[in-house]
Amino acid sequence: MRHVEMVMGTAVSIELAADRPDDELRSLIADVCGWLHEVDARFSTYREDSEVSRMGRGELTSTDCHPDLRHVLGACADLWRATDGYFDAYAGGVLDPSGYVKGWAVEEASRRLAAAGCHTHYIGAGGDIRARGDRVWRIGVRHPWDETKVAWKLAVTDAAVATSGTYERGGHVINPRTGKPAHVLRSVTVVGPDLTLADAYATAALAMDGEGLRYLEKLATDGYESAAVTSDGRAFTSAGLPVAS
Length: 245
Description:
The protein has helices spanning about 20-45, 50-55, 65-80, 100-115, 195-205, 210-220, and strands at about 1-5, 10-15, 120-125, 130, 135-140, 150-155, 160-165, 175, 180, 185-190, 225-230, 235. The chain is α+β, with helices and mostly antiparallel strands. The protein has one domain: T-fold (Roll). Strand 3 (about 120-125) and strand 4 (about 130) form a beta hairpin. Helix 1 runs antiparallel to helix 4.
């Protein structure tokens, strides 16, 4: 069963490959959509009434907020330390944990589906994809200059794929060292076992500008393969990137 839901500023595609009654599958999809809308309501930087916006205005403290927001703030702080400050939820001057939240929300949605017995499924939210189960999922990574083409075709089994780039939203990722939009890398894709981390790693690499490629090389030792395209058109891939034959 397939479904597309507009949430978190993008079209989220959900596919459940399970031999179960349609009403059960519809209920599972409704649960996923409900969770994603809950995340959007709490974390959106575009909604004045979201907890993130209220915290940014000083109307809410970490002790007053929902446990999910406290979790995200703690995880972002851990990633800030782990990436030498390049993953920074405050890089733009105000709280914006978007580089963590979407990947985390989709990974959690996938975990909930698996816990409910739906072990083979796909959730795609823009550049963030979680494909679970024993089957091979074929995923195209968008070309960073031509949306009608793909830069890479991947074949993954039970894996996450996260892509961060400057080609849709412009300079939305800030290099915290310079305080300016990152510009050296145009597109970064990270493939690995957990979408939360893959998404954060892709964002951090993009923010690193010239240091991003070296950072991506190191990720392979932790089981995260990668691909990147520079702003001057050069392409790089790690040795273990699961490219489709």
